[in-house]
Design a protein that fits this description.
This protein is α+β, with helices and mostly antiparallel strands and about 350 residues long. The chain is built from five helices and 13 strands. The chain is rod-shaped. The structure holds calcium ion (CA) (4 copies). The site of one calcium ion has 8 residues, from loops.
Length: about 350
């Protein structure tokens, strides 16, 4: 229920002769002005209330209290409640506001998460590529160092030589560990190949151990001097006849296929992968140099990436479209001990 306005109450009181001389209503008079349910009081009761109110005012004055203290407190109370109610109204959220806030938060969080994952993927990729390149360089360095020494035989008694000269496997001996005229100790008999687990394996004659991991393939081709004229044999087009023993298991120890089948000086996708027959198979002791391919790969497969490149690795054609990235290294190693 609302209160009577002071104006209306003043008129009502004046009509009944209860108003004060000033004519100004006193809101602090609870009986007359502050009741939420004002009612017309009998004159005697009203005068008694006025009398009691006058006594109360005098008591306040005597005691030092302001006669308008209740009045002020009442006003302040009303104002404070109004402010409090006003604050409460403003501090709330509607369901729509909450949903909008959640939607905006979701969009922002999704964007932040996307940026984070992109940065993370980029970091992982850079790390993987660096590792791949390092693996390739390590494989190249280790194999180059030893293939260069193939056939090393300081005593002339060890019979060091090439044992197998395949397109994806190389096997040779060298009396380099102890120079004792034999090739019986580990390290004198070396084989390189790639395992099914894509590790470059080095067999030292006693143990077959991985050198580096994540090697998709290795390839070898061999240059030879079949006529012993001191120069590497070339084709009709003047190109080196890079050849392989196409079947290392038949133990014939002969190079029988050359790989630059179109005789353009490079071994590429344009050549016949199976190679072409040499006019005369070449014994492995005529080998003078080795061309080497190392196809390194990233260890982690990226499902969003596709490497459709077909890599030429000697007589192999490698198309590992499995989400991994690849890095192909090639080099040529002169076997400095094979012409001696
Ligand atoms: Ca030895
Ligand atoms: Ca020659
Ligand atoms: Ca063979
Ligand atoms: Ca070619």
């Amino acid at each position: 229920m609302g209160r009577f306005s002071p104006h209306i109450l003043r008129i009502a009181c004046s009509d009944r002769g209860y108003d004060r001389p000033s004519g100004r209503p006193r809101v602090s008079d609870p009986a007359t002005y502050c009741s939420s349910t004002p009612r017309i009081q009998p004159p005697a009761v009203a005068r008694w209330h006025t009398h009691l109110h006058g006594l109360a005012t005098k008591i306040r004055k005597i005691s030092g209290l302001s006669p308008d203290l209740d009045n002020q407190q009442g006003h302040l109370g009303v104002m404070e409640r109004a402010e409090r109610n006003k604050g409460n109204f403003r501090s709330g959220f509607s369901l729509v506001e909450l949903l909008v806030a959640m939607a905006i938060t979701g969009v922002v969080m999704a964007a932040v998460f996307k940026i984070y994952t992109t940065q993370q993927d980029s970091y992982v990729l850079q790390e993987q590529v660096a590792e791949m390149q390092q693996n390739g360089r390590t494989a190249k360095y280790v194999m180059t160092r030893e293939i260069r020494m193939a056939g090393y035989d300081p005593t002339g008694l060890a019979g060091a030589e090439f044992i197998s000269a395949g397109g994806n496997i190389i096997h040779f001996t060298m009396d380099i560990t102890d120079e004792d005229g034999t090739i019986t100790v580990p390290g004198d008999d070396i084989t390189y190949s790639v395992s099914a687990d894509k590790e470059l394996m080095r067999n030292d004659g006693a143990n077959n151990q991985p050198v580096v991991e994540n090697v998709e393939a290795v390839g070898f081709a061999y240059a030879f001097d079949a006529d012993d004229d001191g120069s590497i044999d070339t084709s009709a087009g003047g190109n080196i006849m890079w050849a392989i023993d196409s079947d290392v298991t038949d133990a014939d120890s002969r190079l029988d296929k050359y790989l630059d089948t179109n005789d353009d000086g490079i071994i590429s996708i344009d050549d016949d992968a199976a190679g072409a027959d040499l006019a005369t198979p070449v014994p492995l002791d005529k080998i003078r140099a080795v061309k080497m391919w190392i196809l390194a790969r990233t260890g982690r497969e990226d499902k969003a990436f596709a490497d459709s490149t077909t890599y030429v690795v000697a007589d192999q054609r490698v198309n590992a479209n499995d989400g991994s990235r690849h890095h192909l290294l090639t080099t040529t190693v002169k076997c400095r001990n094979m012409a001696l």
